[in-house]
Protein 1
Amino acid sequence: MSWIQDAGHGGSDPGAVAIGNMEKMYTLEAALYVDRRLSELGIASDTTRTSDVTLNTEPRTSKVKKYKKCISHHFNAGGGSGAETIHSIYSDGKFEQSLVEEFRKAGYPVRPRPLYTRKNSSGGDFYYMHRLTGTCRTTIVEYEFVDGPQSEKIKDKTYREGMYECVVRAICQEEGVRYVAPRSGQTPTPISQPSNLPKENLIVDGYLNPKTISALQSYFGTPVDGIISKPSLVIKELQRRLNNGNLE
């Protein structure tokens, strides 16, 4: 297996948050999407995380360095616009250039300098995903700014998945695998959100947020981590009490 998808941030580290956009949720979505699409196309891939969990530097990089190639999925902040890619100072940047071209061809904005490297004060790679991942060629992708001119557009799941598909196409090109677009109807159309959403208990996309989940877990006496997993102890307990008529 050559590829691994790194979902940046996660758990207690939300990444960039602005205007109803939360980086850690988008990066998880991106990693899982690309991993699934690569599997459909016959390209072996793995992920660093599959849920909203905290993943510190050491366990993240230790897993990544077992693979040959990594995409570290991120969203940017600072009010700008467009995608950018960052590669190691020891990489030639050819894959990243092809990725930038896929964004351009798909009509997504790219940064004025969409491809670059960065050194630290010691002359090594600045980003730990380059510096601490061994021989794995890691590409950091910053899809878009959560607080920029496209901040409303990226709330649209179809818009986001179009960006992720650019990564899939670039990987297919690199691997010499025939690209096949997602099946029609495979990607659900985002549902319009009602106005005046509650300020507490629900986040923008209508899912229970970690505070609400943690409160339920505490109430039912199950482990408290703010995450509804599959299977979920808190959901099982809720179902049991509803069936027994003792939800008090």
Protein 2
Amino acid sequence: MDGANIHPEIADLYPELIQIRRELHQHPELMFDLPRTSAFVASYLQALNIEVHTGVGKSGVVGVIRGEGPCILLRADMDALPITELIESDYKSTTPGKTHACGHDAHMAMLLVAAKVISRHRDRLKGSIKFMFQPAEEGGHGARFMRDDENYPVLDAEPRVDEVYGIHMGNQVNLGDFNLSEKFMSTYSDFFDIEVKGKGGHGSSPHLCNDPIISAAELIVALQTIISRNVNTKFKSVLSVTTIHGGETYNAISDSCKLTGTIRSYETEVRDLLIKRINEICNGLSVANNISIVFTLHPLYGPIVNDPTCIQKTEAVFRKICPNANREMDSPMIGEDFAYLTDVRPGCFYMLGCSTTEKTAPLHSPNFTFDERSMMIGASFWVQLVQDELFKN
């Protein structure tokens, strides 16, 4: 934080930033079921005399400040994760099995406080702003539901959006730095199920069975050869088998075994190859072992591809706040439905450095945490972006 040019109004509102983030952190809600969270956001925006649309994309909230000129959209996500928080604090999640382990509480706090500051200067605007608070980023395609909402399509409803911007907490990036790739900021993200169905029986008589556990084990090993032997080494990709479920007891061979996992890739051709090879391996092993193997793909999101001009704007704004910032240029292997917005509008999405002194537990960990001072940088970024893009000289 040394040398950071925090917007003075944001600095004054730092206690409120903390209070909002912690209030939201204590009351996490999942996917589209966000009654308390959506109401909190809508009420805060309405108190600022900002036009508010609720129920967008089921439970999203959009705040609008109108002006003559271009329109930019600033996005925060609202949903938490189905994880039990392990960190002890006076603002720990009050709901077992739910916590904000991906920083969405901070995303909301930064955008709400930035909206407060921006609303104070609305007479200086030469354009419009949409503050987008979306549900169901965590696997529910919430951005698509808001984009395609019949009553209020967030990008096309007047004022029509020209550019979109998003921030994500990056607690593996140092406080005061940022991660902004020149190309991809997320991957194709797909989940899969593989059901192996054989013939069960007594554990003492495997010769009378067709053991799905053995075939599942062979399958796991075979799948791990796809990236190392089929994908060109210049491409980054991931194939992870993350669960295996089969059998109930010590002395019985199960009829079936189920595998689940995820594949991640940036390029369409790599994704297509991964899917093709999974199918081929499943089919081949099915024939070889005379067993049923069914592969089911669950597509999630495509990759975020940042617009070159918006990248330049983002870096310029960030360096006004943190002149000495180190810009990391890694392409994260995350899935992010902000891609539904950048698919149809120019925009930029980046990771805000918020690491504590030592690198902390990663996103989606029950021990996830971050340095709350980073929220002053993120909120200042939003205000500075609007000043640079939409304020009259």
Protein 3
Amino acid sequence: MGLFSRSQPKIKVENTKKDSYSGWIKCSHCFEMIHANELQDNLNCCPKCSYHYRLNVKQRMNLLLDDNSFIELFTNIMPKDPLKFVDSQKYSKRLKAAQEKTNSDEAIIVGVAFVNSKKVAIGIMDFSFMGGSMGSVVGEKITLLIEHATKKSLPLIIVSASGGARMQESILSLMQMAKTSAALTRLHKKRLPYISILTNPTTGGVTASFASLGDIIIAEPNALIAFAGPRVVEQTINQKLPDGAQKSEFLLEKGMIDLIVKRDELKKKISFFVDFLMHNPKDITSEKMPKRLKQLLKVAASKKTDEHIAVKANKKNEQKNQS
């Protein structure tokens, strides 16, 4: 009888308490052990190194919006497979699997809501839906949201988390870059503010279009923000990228974004910017905008309270009206 043809004794393995899930996980950034409950209580940020893990749409809503204030818009638009695209499997099957996984129709949810009692038009991308890729429905919903904000004179907020344009829709996805950008031009002409929030990751056609066109661009710490990923760039130019390149801290240093805000401070900062820009619409399109924006960001990064800032801004407006 050959060695490998012998029947092997079957060893029965019994699950013990130690084998079961204990709730402890290892941080992928600092490799420290943290408990899942502790991570959840800390807004999905590692309590050891403050690494920001991804949030789903519901978690993002709970973080940024007032309770029960969100009303979803344009729910009748559904994705289809006009090109009958097939790679390792049919695009239609990928869509169905993503919808079942996320319980969402597409990679973005748009609507109106309140942020500290201030009404806004908001779109939140979901990276867990096919990598947050932008197809024709995502682009259409963003465009309709921008047009709704323009018509109703609402400030616009878009939270980006995307791998870029959806390759299964080819040119139909690429044209969304131009469509969303054109809609933002019309919003800008009406002097309404657009705050773009970049989370990890924001790449590809999303970065190259609406995500980079905000009047104020905010990023979460250590977020990957790029057109092509670091591996693709290194293989193309045959050079090693600098440490931290394409991270939000690197982009802030180079002037590509306006500020980095930790997750627990994000709602407060958005509320401040919405309040300031809606009461000072001329500043958005004035020639002095870069200087004013720099002053504004400096104030926002300070430890002053929203109440103190609002009182000071109101006094300045009263003085201007009197003069």
Protein 4
Amino acid sequence: VHPSVKEALVEGRPVVALESTIITHGMACPLNLSMAREVEEIVRTNGAVPATLGVLRGQIHVGLSDEELEFLASSKNAVKVSRRDFPFVLSQGLSGGTTVSGTMIAAHKAGIPVFVTGGIGGVHRDGENTLDVSADLTELGRTPVAVVSARAKSILDIGRTLEYLETPGVCVAAFGESREFPAFFSRQSGFQAPYHVRDEEEAAKLIDGALGLGLSSGVLIAVLCPQERAAEGQAIEEAIQQALSQARSKGITGKEVTPFMLQKLTELTDGKSLDSNLALIQNNARVGSCIAVALSKLQKARRKGNLDLTPPQPVVIGGINVDFIAKEQNPDILGGGQTNAGSVRQTFGGVGRNLADCLSRLGQAPLLLSAVGKDEHLESVLHYCHHMDMSAILQLEGRSTATYCAVITSAGELSVGLGYMDIHQQITEQYV
């Protein structure tokens, strides 16, 4: 998790998740990079923290640095990462852009409730025969994240997509003054959303209601395309039909359809579809950021109102150590550089960690404030302490996790102790 995103989540500030497939597969470089930077800046301007998600060398990243954005934007071998792709991509150390489905999974695990995208996948045209249905729809039915989108992508069957979303109980609402479900490049599709929300406050209340019930399904907020772009919708729709025909004749199916269609639409419309696509993505980022800010305010107000009713979370501030215990087998320890028979075992300690461990096992769920290095011990520490709230732990590059080695006699008496615990100095007042 990027430090700016982690800090915002810890402080309860609004965070907006952003997908990266549009960077790796939706636009050519360097347009994709400039688009990603612009969208992140729109999110910041509207009071939220952007968290572009992606997979880099087999690791899921929640929030990307500018260098990491450049890496994904220029990568020639990036893959599209949906739910089904995570096991292979992570195990093989590959890099790629997360789809709507993949981004929802990572955003939910990171604790980000609002996700902005250009458009979701859906039921493809002729899907009743091909059974080509995007994993985005099934993800919306089982992952509690609010997706702010300009509806289903323009190459899809809107009616069947809405019908499909009804079955797993996905709450779909149009954003605006009517229930008109927007088309990707048009403000009208001929279909009605079940509900509509007039502004970001109403959208935030809807999302908060879904989260408060603990529903396992997501929410889809469908945003109208900007008015100034709506006039181009008919010409683009005609180009869509032509591009779809070419895709069928070339036998292009599955996840290859969207990149092909986007490229072909850009050619057939002399770039107008690309301009419209950029405009609606930017508009979605603005709307989604405002919704995230409104949701954050709503949740903070409720937490403040419930302050006297909610037991406070204990906070433990202290060290985490990796302990090595060397026990002599014989009563006498041989000196002079000789090897003594004995046993060595590894465990985990530190007074702060021990207290947090005890409280966690008693059901008190404390927050541990400590520091570890990004070294060979990090993974084992996190695994051993998986039952504890380690979300605020500092993980520092170029630092070593604290270690302590105790040499004890066969009777269990401490003979000598060695410790390297300089990292504890990083637990400062500013960090706390």
